[in-house]
């Protein structure tokens, strides 16, 4: 494979140099953080009075963690390190959980962020001959403008189509020969279903690649999208607290997401003991932003669960790779005392050929017990009147799920297209259990 | 008044120099246009083989007009003058009338466009201390990204809030001390009504200015928004064929929109004879783009009706000012043989204090005759049970309209908030007459 690098020197930098660069940038980030009301108190409380108190990378551990809760408490300007008139943009996330988080950027911050996204896109083999349709919400959400800027930086023809309006999306793909799209995995599956439904032939579009992110998804979902649409799907990871997209991305090897360690320091910690874990072990991802001046955030507990690969990547990049996010510490469901991640259910369901492109997890209370109901759309090729086949499929899903999560779920089958589709991040869990029981 | 100029040398350039600059840029634009399939045929057909065939500004008249119809016929690449791989973005407009128009940009085009929008914004007195909430759709529509880019270029804090979600818009204004917004005039009126309805006090927001565009509106609507929200409203003019916003804009004198003549050549023509009209006379605006390489468009018939002011502007800018667009050649309604522009109806309705923030024009067929129904929301301070007062108001509207347009309309009064609100461009006319009678 012919790998291409946006910034070869940085991407293949020897680890030692990369870590020296991190220390240098971390010193600057600490100095910058000390200009914010929040970190002035938090860091001096931990005995850190200047960036010079950081001598080696292991001094990172002297810095206390920052949580989502801290960000909310610091609203609106507790994390702002520069005069307001130097700010050129803010992005705010309502998040998948809870109240908004606001991140401020100066002009240099936007430029650096754009560079990281361009690096991600270019690393998947895209170049200025590509036509890139950005099928995601523009505005306060970072996914739209973030990918837009990165795509233009690479020199692709960017179509700012935004989310939704599936029929118009096909038309744009056909009219302009779109080769790459960016979307949530659930929207990609929806697009495929709709194409079938409206009789749009695969040959009428030139699509070759998709960047999928903004919601966790399983390897089986990736494979399903790749097979159905006959494209390469690249996994994208980012979060608004760390600018948005451009934090970690798959290269053409598609085996883990390179965390851009010249821009972010990544750690995996045990979410209970808060102790750092060695590479290879799964825990909560903690990120320190090294590439943003206006809103410094140090050792941010992302609540995303992942681990670092320990082997080298065939692409030659030295930046460590994250395993796909399997869930968040706070989207874990406790069902009759058993811990279940929605991603475990997705993995089972999306691996089955007979299953369609959408599913929904519903939780209810039956007396004192929790009841897990998994609603699954059947594939377009399954006849809804073949009850023997349907019962067999239902039983197969139930058994495989039970083997995976130890809970015995109720499985419901639905016709293709019957379950609700969201245009932004998919809502896969409906927890109808009363809150205070 | 202290005027400020983004580019003083250009904005106050003596007319003679400005026209020499136009000739120079027009030569280049013609050369660029000759690289497109459409203009290669059209220009050589008119005897123009190179930019050198343009010697003076009056040679412009040798160039045939380009129409919306031509743009559609040239879809998708008939107007593209550069290799596809040099294109970094496209914007497409579904337009207020008819099928999509596509404009391609290279990186330099985006940069130049951004400069013109920044010039507009800065000329209204904004600077980097301002907080700018861009309450308009992002994506394929040029209004969102165009103002976003210009706002960042000026160094304002840009909040990419997008359109809709009125309650969230207030919250953002309150949280971040928004001083300037961009929106359609109808959305601004809707915001004001909603503020009253939800009890949001004017003192809780710091708003000082609004840029209003994307749909024509009357001077009375401007005054109404200014009085209700206690802000300055600046009139913005642009169209996707000429990049989008940034074509013409009001300065702090608010007496006409300076057309940026170093980027665009403006002419007013008689839409019937197609002969150019002298400054001061009203006709169809024809624009030639001098600031875009990827998609050259020469002598484009905008179908917008306007005229040039003949006096100098107090601000010292030498670029001629356009009168606010009073309508489009193609949105003229023919009612029982009489020509009526929706703007004439708006002017009457919005001038009345007793009238609320929304209205709708409905056309129906009664036998062989057209029937004009004007539905008007009453102000929040008018009691809907005071039938004597309501009847008097109805009669007043009816009479004033009849005096203005010679048609006797049926007037209907509705409660505040009862008529439909659109989040993008307002739909003010519902023509229910059968098409082929």
UniProtKB/TrEMBL annotation, chains A, B:
KW Ligase (keyword) present: yes
Q: Molecular function (GO) terms listed?
A: nucleotide binding; phenylacetate-CoA ligase activity
The EC number on file is 6.2.1.30
Q: Which reaction does it catalyse?
A: 2-phenylacetate + ATP + CoA = phenylacetyl-CoA + AMP + diphosphate
Residue ranges of domain AMP-dependent ligase C-terminal in the record: 337-433
Keywords for this entry?
Ligase, Nucleotide-binding, Phosphopantetheine, Phosphoprotein
**SUPFAM superfamilies (alphabetical):** Acetyl-CoA synthetase-like
Q: In which pathway does it act?
A: Aromatic compound metabolism; phenylacetate degradation
Sequence intervals crossing the membrane: none
* Gene Ontology BP term (one): phenylacetate catabolic process
Domain AMP-dependent synthetase/ligase residues, every copy: 85-287
Pfam families xrefs: AMP-binding, AMP-binding_C_2
The similarity annotation says:
Belongs to the phenylacetyl-CoA ligase family.
Query: What is the recorded function of this protein according to its Swiss-Prot or TrEMBL entry?
Result: Catalyzes the activation of phenylacetic acid (PA) to phenylacetyl-CoA (PA-CoA).
User: Quaternary structure per UniProt?
Assistant: Monomer.
Could you tell me what this protein is called? Phenylacetate-coenzyme A ligase
């Amino acid at each position: 494979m012919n790998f291409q690098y946006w910034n070869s020197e940085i991407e293949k930098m020897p680890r030692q140099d990369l870590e020296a660069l991190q220390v240098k940038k971390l010193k600057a980030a600490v100095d910058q953080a000390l200009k914010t009301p929040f970190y002035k108190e938090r860091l001096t409380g931990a005995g850190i009075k200047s960036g010079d108190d950081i001598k080696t990378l292991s001094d990172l551990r002297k810095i206390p963690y920052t949580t989502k809760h801290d960000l909310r408490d610091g609203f609106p300007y507790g994390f702002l390190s520069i005069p307001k008139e130097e700010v050129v943009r803010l992005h705010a996330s309502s998040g998948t959980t809870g109240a908004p988080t606001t991140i401020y950027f100066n002009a240099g911050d936007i430029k650096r962020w754009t560079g990281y996204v361009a690096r991600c896109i270019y690393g998947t083999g895209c170049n200025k001959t590509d036509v890139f349709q950005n099928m995601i919400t523009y505005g306060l959400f970072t996914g739209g403008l973030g990918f837009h800027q990165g795509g233009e930086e690479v020199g692709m023809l960017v179509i700012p189509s935004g989310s939704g309006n599936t029929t118009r999306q096909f038309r744009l793909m056909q009219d302009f020969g779109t080769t790459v799209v960016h979307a949530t995995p659930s929207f990609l599956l929806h697009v495929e279903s709709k194409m079938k439904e409206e009789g749009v032939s695969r040959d009428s579009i030139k699509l070759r690649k998709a960047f999928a992110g903004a919601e966790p998804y399983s390897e089986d979902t990736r494979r399903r999208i790749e097979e159905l649409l006959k494209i390469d799907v690249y996994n994208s990871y980012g979060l608004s607290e760390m600018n948005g997209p451009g934090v970690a991305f798959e290269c053409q090897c598609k085996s883990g997401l390179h965390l851009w360690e010249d821009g972010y320091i990544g750690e995996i910690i045990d979410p209970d003991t808060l102790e750092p874990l060695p590479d290879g072990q799964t825990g909560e991802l903690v990120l320190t932003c090294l590439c943003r001046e206006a809103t410094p955030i140090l050792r941010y507990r992302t609540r995303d669960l992942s681990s670092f690969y320990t082997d080298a990547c065939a692409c030659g990049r030295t930046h460590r790779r994250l395993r796909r996010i399997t869930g968040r510490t706070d989207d874990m469901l406790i069902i009759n005392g058993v811990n279940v991640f929605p991603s475990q259910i997705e993995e089972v369901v999306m691996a089955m050929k007979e299953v369609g492109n959408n599913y929904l997890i519903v939780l209810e209370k039956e007396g004192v017990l929790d009841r897990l109901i998994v609603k699954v759309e059947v594939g377009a090729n399954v006849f809804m009147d073949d009850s023997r086949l349907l019962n067999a499929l239902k039983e197969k899903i139930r058994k495989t799920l039970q083997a995976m999560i130890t809970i015995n779920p109720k499985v419901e089958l639905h016709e293709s297209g019957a379950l609700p589709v969201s245009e932004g991040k998919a809502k896969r869990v409906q927890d109808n259990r009363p809150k205070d029981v």
